[in-house]
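Bug #77: duplicate submission created two jobs. Keeping one. Sequence:
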Amino acid sequence: MSWPLFKANIRANRFIWILMFLIFVMYIGIMISMFDPDQVESMKAMMEMLPEAFVKMLQFDTFGTTLVGFIAGSLYGFLVYLFPVVLSVVVNHRVIASLVDKGSMTYLLASPNSRIKIASTQALFSILSITLYFTCVTIAGLLFSELMYPGELDLLVWVQLNLYAILNFLAIGSIGFCVSALSNESKLSLGLGIGIPVTFMILQMLGNADDRLAWIGNLSMYALFDPIKLVNGDSFVIFGSILFVIIAVILYSAGIIIFNKKNMYV
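Kept job's structure:
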């Protein structure tokens, strides 16, 4: 690993990381403050007043009666894909494709660092940025819960939920990293880096909107992430987690190999 390059990544991405973290944590605080076991049925009744397809599309049709179940149903179904995805897209674009497009990669390739070392450092930064993100989210959620509802949060399930989210976003991040390694221009890297996750999201929303379209939702990688099944102890989570790991390992490795072998105009 190149430590100077890793520190440069921290400087370049700290603002977007902190911003996306603070916004997501704000939503966690809001959702935790709304939790009331006695009012869950009232919230369900309120959701029934909205168009059924709309509620299902945004996955707001399931509210658990426990605090962790409520968070999983209200926040980790749809909203979890907004801010962490933005962070993943930006970080993975910046670690390779942006440097190539701006010409900064010229100086890195002229250094004693090999292409494998450079790409491995960037892949490690991509992985750690998401891992640290959800680690901090886990801690923040625990603190909010203890402040508002002491002893109500099932810590084991909360940690498992965020570990599940980490694996999901490592798979998403690996797509962005591989695309970034493949691209020599920012427009291609950003186009595919944004387009693929958004396509997955649209497919999932269509699949959730109508039972007859459920097969469309299964075309999305996000179908492997089901926080409610985790809260309920469904073994499907193990299957999904294993596939996330496989996807991440293959695509991060592929990105490093592609970067090492490809021709670049620098």
